Amino acid sequence: MPIINLGIQIVPKSKTLDSYALVDKAIEVIQQSGIKHIVTPFETVMEGPQEELMEIARRVQEAVLAAGAEEVLVYYRMQIRKNSDVSIEDKIGKY
């Protein structure tokens, strides 16, 4: 199973709850998954098998809705290679 990178940006919508607190719930799900990830100001990038990352992404959106968001916008970006793994380290390790 090839290793890919999946960037996920969560934009929760709520008239009464703080958006950052809702995003924190999303990041908490990713952290608890144990998957390799990097949190940035605009998205969180995860590294792993595509099926596992998509399952984590589904749990993330469910957690944000369960925390009280009325709606959630979810943006994905994926890097997938045909014959080799994709690594966060390959892209940013030199920094």
Automatic annotation (TrEMBL):
<feature type="domain" description="Thiamine-binding protein">
    <location>
        <begin position="8"/>
        <end position="95"/>
    </location>
</feature>
<dbReference type="InterPro" id="IPR051614">
    <property type="entry name" value="UPF0045_domain"/>
</dbReference>
<dbReference type="GO" id="GO:0005829">
    <property type="term" value="C:cytosol"/>
</dbReference>
<dbReference type="Pfam" id="PF01910">
    <property type="entry name" value="Thiamine_BP"/>
</dbReference>
<protein>
    <recommendedName>
        <fullName>Thiamine-binding protein domain-containing protein</fullName>
    </recommendedName>
</protein>
<dbReference type="InterPro" id="IPR002767">
    <property type="entry name" value="Thiamine_BP"/>
</dbReference>
<comment type="similarity">
    <text>Belongs to the UPF0045 family.</text>
</comment>
<dbReference type="InterPro" id="IPR029756">
    <property type="entry name" value="MTH1187/YkoF-like"/>
</dbReference>
